[in-house]
Amino acid sequence: MTEKAILDAKRIRRIPDSFSWIDHRFIRDGHVKRCDTGELALYFLLVTVGDDQGMSYYSDRHIQELLHFKPEQLKRNRAGLIAHQLIAYRRPLYQVLSLHPKTPAAQAPEAAVKTTPESVQAYLAHWREQLKHD
């Protein structure tokens, strides 16, 4: 296991009063994988500028300037984040939403399928029967 060591002691991150954060579940639960680059840029901006309830009211024009988006890119990325249930939007307000709990479908396959001795025995018996008939 790699040990952590401070790389630049003069630049250690301090949490300011206006701190914004991204929930670790955004990565762990696979939300990041569902987003394209433009959606991630917009999400990062909205998390950064949002208040403690995730609310912000940056104008479309300002967001487009900050992220170098064309109007249709902003609309598409906003629609994507809404579809992923990561934000809510009612002009001029954005709200970064709390993340849904991880669903069984999002879990790793091995966690979703339980293998018991009985299921293995049934599987082997099925294939033995198939081999007898071949």
List keywords for this structure.
7 helices; Arc Repressor Mutant, subunit A; 3 strands; mainly alpha; 3-stranded antiparallel β-sheet; extended; 47% helix; 134 residues; single chain
Please tell me about this protein's structure:
The chain has 134 residues and is mainly alpha-helical. It has seven helices and three strands; from the N terminus they run H-H-H-E-H-H-E-E-H-H. Strands 1-3-2 form a three-stranded antiparallel sheet. The N and C termini lie far apart (50 Å). Mean pLDDT is 81; it is low at 106-115.
Q: How large is the count of helical segments?
A: 7
Distance between the termini: 50 Å
Shape: extended
SS-based structural class?
A: mainly alpha
CATH superfamily of the domain at 20-100: Winged helix-like DNA-binding domain superfamily/Winged helix DNA-binding domain
The number of strands is 3
Task: Determine the mean pLDDT.
Answer: 81
Rg over CA atoms:
23 Å
Give, in spatial order, the strands making up the sheet with the most strands. Answer: 1-3-2
Strand content: 5-15%
What's the order of the H and E elements? HHHEHHEEHH
Question: Helix fraction?
Answer: 40-55%
Would you give the CATH topology of the domain at 20-100? Answer: Arc Repressor Mutant, subunit A
Low-confidence stretches are 106-115
CATH class of the domain at 20-100: Mainly Alpha
Instruction: State the assembly state of the protein chains.
Output: single chain
Based on the coordinates given, report the CATH architecture of the domain at 20-100.
Orthogonal Bundle
Largest sheet composition? 3 strands, antiparallel
